[in-house]
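Entry 14. Ran structure prediction on the chain below.
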Amino acid sequence: MDRIDFRSDTVSWPTPAMRAAMAAAPVGDDVYGEDPTVNELEALAAARVG
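Output, structure tokens:
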């Protein structure tokens, strides 16, 4: 691939570094409040909007 196309996630391929980041990312079930990334994003948004 010679460029990144942001129109859709189906037209671009992840780089090896992107794949490594995805594989190493902490994950959990956001429905049960167990996804640390979602929890951090929600807390950040709540802090910004009060």
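The chain has two helices and no strands. Will compare against last week's run tomorrow.
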